[in-house]
Design a protein that fits this description.
Layout lengths: L10 H12 L4 H10 L12 E5 L6 H14 L2 E6 L6 H14 L5 H23 L10 H16 L12 H5 L5 H5 L6 H8 L1 H17 L4 E6 L2 H15 L12 E7 L5 H4 L6 E5 L5 H10 L5 H11 L3 H9 L11 H5 L6 H9 L8 H8 L9 H8 L5 E2 L7 E2 L1 H14 L1 H22 L12 H17 L1 H18 L4 H14 L3 H17 L4 H10 L4 H17 L3 H14 L4 H13 L3 H14 L4 H14 L2 H14 L4 H13 L3 H14 L4 H13 L3 H14 L4 H13 L3 H14 L4 H13 L3 H14 L4 H13 L3
Parallel strand pairs: 1-4, 1-5, 2-3, 3-4
Antiparallel strand pairs: 6-7
Helix pairs in contact: 2-3, 4-5, 5-10, 9-10, 14-15, 18-19, 18-21, 20-21, 21-22, 22-23, 22-24, 23-24, 23-27, 24-25, 25-26, 26-27, 27-28, 27-29, 28-29, 29-30, 29-31, 30-31, 31-32, 31-33, 32-33, 33-34, 33-35, 34-35, 35-36, 35-37, 36-37, 37-38, 37-39, 38-39, 39-40, 40-41
Amino acid sequence: MPPTSPRRLSLQQIIEGQRRAAFVGRRAELDLYRRNFTLPPEDPRHRFVFHVRGNAGVGKTSLVREWREAAAEFGAVTASVDESADSVPDVLAAFAAQFAEQGYPLKALDRLLDIYRRALHEAAGQLAADNETPPAGPSAGALAAAQAGLIAAGAIPVVGALAGGIDPAVLARGAGGLRAVFGGRARLQEEARLLAEPIRVLSPVFVAEIDRVADTVPWVALFLDTYERTAPQLDRWVSDLLTPGRYGDLPANLVLTLAGQRRLDPVRWGDRSRLVADVPLGPFTEAESRQLLHGRGVVEEPVVREVLRLSGGLPVLVSTLATNPGAAGEANATAVERFLAGESDPVRRAAALACALPRRFDEDLVAVAVAAPQDGPYAVPELYNWLHELPFVAERHSGRSRYHAVVRAPMLRLQRTGSPQRWKATHDRLAEAFEARRDAAGEGIDPERLWAEQQWRRAALEVLYHRLCARPRTALPEALRAGISLCDQRPYRARHWAQIIAEAGEDADDAVLREWGRDLLAAVTDHGPRPTAALGLLLTRAELTDRDRAAALVVRAWDRFRAGELDAALSDHGRAIAVDPRCERAHQGRAVILRSLGRYEEALADLDRAEEIAPAWAWAVRERGETYRRMGRLEEALTVLDRAHALNPSDAVPLGSRGLVRHGLGRHEDALDDFDRAIALWPEYAWALVRRSRVRTALGDPVGALADLDRAEELTPGRAGTEGERGEVYRATGRYGEAVACYDRALALNPDYAWAHGSRALALEALGRLAEARAALDRALELDPSYGWAREHRERLEATGEP
């Protein structure tokens, strides 16, 4: 038999080997990290946390890569994340995926993460569309519990556009907090708490899984790179992991590495100094710089000295200048000229400079930035490929390539100061290109949901960036107006908007933009997913039109309404109307708040005005129909909801409301048809599924009713109303014991659910448990003294005189 051929290395393995062979310097830092693995965890010299810090370009990421390889050499299972994972669930998902790739799946954690993503996504859509608003705000305790979970989720936006988008007060309202909205039958209590407090639920499972893996391997090494960007979202969690008794006991053979630009927060880390090895990373020493230069063949002393002077020892600059060191006599050459000193072709040099202007680029954006003629010496694909040969280009061929920040900054300065006209013209072309992408991404999407679409949002933010860079002062009002819309639709994305303004301020060297960006970032960071502070800045400092000011007030009013701040919300709507009396959204929003307070006539007056301003606005018509329904004016509600449906036949919500009205009028077949059509338009419409179950029960179809409730529970696990409706189905079919059990589960989720107390009383009466039935009706009336139905049945039971 021929000898077995050795396994060939992959291309990636060869490239990685070459990269590691080219790594120079940082010997002391490498030795420090390696030595730590030779010390047992009990040794006082052993460190459980390494924090490598330093300015951009000093080589933190390269050192972290070397440390990870070193840890693997000592038998460690390793996992690493950077700023792309900027929330706790994102970090845990990335760690779990990397552990699985190494043969150590974290199955329990993966299961919870899957449940979290699915349930949060489904719940967000349901809550955003739920047209039922209870008459009173959430209790203080429920709101606090909901906010505790959701502010964390919003500050660390996990599931793309959804993690912070569910307003905590919406979840808490009238249902005893987040658990009441999402909790479920006994087997679903874990999911309820997961959605209420994702960090508190996921972290102990993560710790337990890591501990399990650590029992089978010598070491576990975790790395969080670019920590200066993720610390606002992750630092408290990382610190809490190390707190005894917080999330469980971490294994002693775990080594955690943080890599960022700034020192660790002394408030959180001050008393943990004995755990942490602080590794400040400065520029290369002269010896290290010379080692890199000699390794690249740059040995002539005058050239070496010039590179040392121009780079300042910054590794990314030393590496770039080592590739093209230039002539020693060019004493006044700028750093940018040094980056490209080895490239004499003017087309390529111009392309490299132009492609610094977009924050990220693909081949199409190269064509826009360069504006190369079709008959030019280089085709765009060739230029695009050549750019990826440059040592300072990161995320190559990803469609989102970018220059290293240390290299991009001087390139931007050179172009901004060297040719202001070209600077503006290029940014204008890039803005137009992103406008085209934005408009294409928005085709067929409801304008009220554009900021929720990732592709549209990304392109829209890039439009703002390039407009601000081209004309800072004239583009600022447009950028601020965009922030109002973003805060309306996706408030937890306001950080990205504020960051765009701050970056444009730096890149365009404009003090006004820098100040706006700094202050907006501070407002967003300090207040989590709530946009109130950012909107307050706009209202007090921005030069807004009356229409824009009214829009900002309306957005802030809705935020305050969802938080249960009804007086403040009414005030903001009133101010919006004073500023712009023709603001239909302000009239409609105030009507919703007034309706929730039982002030129906005032609500109708506002809806009159909203419809007078915008007769064809389906939302105002729909709210009128809903108001009539809650007032018990079912015939009028039916007429109005007919009109709302005619104005927007693709909207499922008016059909759902009309179905409930028809059911109330005893027109069960018509109601069933409405619910069928609503659910066909929106299969995840859980609210309509629950209400359709009522209709099916009335039509003698308990099997169909239970199927609807099962599906609703899948979509929005554990809502108290779903369990209450299940109890109604069982009660209607004479299964009174099962009905009582369902009502009990509903009340466990929401003890203040007056309707469930009343219905439970009738099931108890049917079982002959009259004293308990009276107590249940008493509790219902205690919670809702205006509950006439419960009062009638309580008086009936009292009249019987039976014990």
